[in-house]
Amino acid sequence: MQELLERKKGLHRKVLIVDDEFIEREMLGAMLNDLYEIGYAGNGREALDMISSEKATLSLIILDLHMPELDGYSVLEAIRADNEMRRIPVIVLTSEKEAEVKSLQLGAADFITKPYEMPDVVRARVQHAIELAENTVIIHETERDELTGLFHKEFFFEYGKRLDMQNDNMPMDAMVIDINRFHIINELYGREYGNDVLKKIGDRIHDLVKETGGLACRFDSNGFYIYIPHGHDLNKIISDGLDKINASLVDSNISIRMGVFEDDGNGLNMEQRFDRARLACNKLRHSYTTCFDFYNEELHSKELHEERLINDMEKALAEKQFKVFYQPKYNITGDKPVLSSAEALIRWFHPEFGMVSPGEFIPLFEDNGLIQKLDRFVWTEAASQIKRWNDEYGIYLPVSVNVSRVDIFNPMLGCILTDLVNINGFTPEKLLLEITESAYTDSSQEIIDTVKGLRNNGFKIEMDDFGSGYSSLNMLTSLPIDALKLDMKFIRNICENKKDSRLVEIMIQIARLLEVPVIAEGVETKEQMELLKSIGCDIIQGYYFSKPLPPEEFCKLFRN
Ligand code: C2E
Ligand code: CA
Ligand code: CA
To answer: Which uninterrupted H or E stretch holds 41?
Structure first.
């Protein structure tokens, strides 16, 4: 760009004159050599050699059509076919009117007729052709991403909208492409490698746009948007595109995901189309098996429903639509099962949707941080419930609460929990903390430090969903935990599936090694309970004993 601007100021431009007739070459040269640096070539072949070795610096080519060996048309064609030479403007020297059409079709910028016109006219034509070409390059460079040659997103949307207007809002399809885990690729293999990946994908997108008459941009560091007229076979385009991209990225484990909005005749505008394609693409973020998906109405209503839940959350808290239920855990190591603690589980009684399950809203609230507020509400409720039961029944029943991974990054976590037990006048080991195994594997050191701090304050930690994360034995032995809670999925088929029962036995052995008790949740039948007891499981939670209950029902269990 800088170089271009300097050249624009008239610093230094080189013009190549290609003519087999010495006199003509020299005459033309004489008209221009006070303004430009002039190079000469006496035939087409010589000219092409010079052009290709000086393609970065040439400002203009003046080309005679009739030459021996390689004529002017062939030179023009060769220039057009080369990505870099193509930007150099060509003025054709001719004496025949018919030649003009053909040269124009081959991309000539202008003509100078033989015998030559007045020198001033020739000079004006030369200057004009150079200026025009340079302006085009400047525009091209500001509009386009340097690396891939695709539009920047601002120009993309501007041209896209213009295209829509000019074509009477014809139906258009929208595609969003993201490269999975691109920042990791950059980190692992270096920026240059990352750039190469972007370029290769960019090249495929150029092809696609050419074939379909569409428009594309590099949207951000790892994503592309493509806008194409509706009516193409999208399934074929996508599978061909994916094949080509995968073929050009062979030796890498790079993968892309693609969200597609296919025009549905509802007259959406460009932005709305891309919002929908983006939604379809984002839904694939956590999928390892699917690499493209079409937007559909179901996805949209799910999105709207999720929006509603997120928007309603604060009001729901204020209006007490959330209730904490308690599910008992029984110690089965003795002759008779003994109630040993409970897990606090949130329930949402939504005025419109009825009971909404935490499986539905917890992940949403984890994504945007709302979970911290909700968890704090549950902890507060659970702590006062522990006190209330003690006041009424004279027993301290420990209650476990779920601590989401987002909570762990709150530096005030220890203070919040300690305050809660102090206010209610009991010791910290009665408020058990469940932390899911995958939280440890995601960001181990930070979590380990926080959890160590909590234990130093007297809290007991249960590792939830054990077996679903990827803790190594080595890591487990260094983790600060007080109980292992097996992931429910191992219990479901434990009586039918020998492999599952073997796995549970192994997990129980690990717990023995760590000298912590094992809790099995999701236990629904007597057979499951007995099997678990026979292989050494200590504590059981599940429908076999009881579903999660509101506190006023839970307290009936104290009387048994
Ligand atoms: P989780 O912590 O693994 O909780 C166990 C889930 O298993 C609960 O589902 C419980 O109702 C269910 N369950 C218990 N016994 C059985 C059984 O015998 N059979 C079957 N099929 N299911 C059983 P729930 O209450 O729907 O909660 C789902 C998840 O939502 C919880 O999984 C937990 O991760 C999250 N969650 C619930 N309450 C809270 C909360 O207050 N805070 C946070 N951060 N997460 C919560
Ligand atoms: Ca739990
Ligand atoms: Ca669990």
So the answer is: strand 37-41
Give the pLDDT mean for 512-519: 95
**Stated pTM of the model:** 0.65
CB of 548 closer than 6 A to ligand 1? Answer: yes
- For 6-61, what is each residue's pLDDT tens digit? 444 445 799 999 999 999 999 999 999 999 999 999 999 999 999 999 988 899 99
Question: 341 C-alpha vs ligand 1 centroid, how far in Å?
Answer: 15
The values of phi and psi at residue 518, to 5°, are -110, 130
Mutate-to-test residue for ligand 1 from 341, 362, 526, highest number of ligand atoms within 8 A of CB: 362
Taken in order of first residue, the domains within the chain and their CATH numbers are 2-142 (3.40.50.2300), 151-295 (3.30.70.270), 314-559 (3.20.20.450)
- Ligand 1: atom nearest CA of 403 is 44
* Residue 328 C-beta-side C-alpha neighbours within 13 Å: 20
Least Cα distance to 322 among 350, 362, 295 occurs for 350
Distance (Å, whole) CA 156 – CA 331: 64
Instruction: Tell me how far apart the alpha carbons of residues 313 and 380 are, in angstroms, rounded to a whole number.
Output: 17
Name the residue with the closest Cα to ligand 1, atom 21.
Answer: 522
Cα 541 from Cα 251, distance rounded (Å): 48
Name which of 76, 77, 71 is nearest 91 in CA terms: 76
- N-to-C CA span, the chain: 83
Ligand 1 close to Cβ of residue 489 (< 6 A)? no
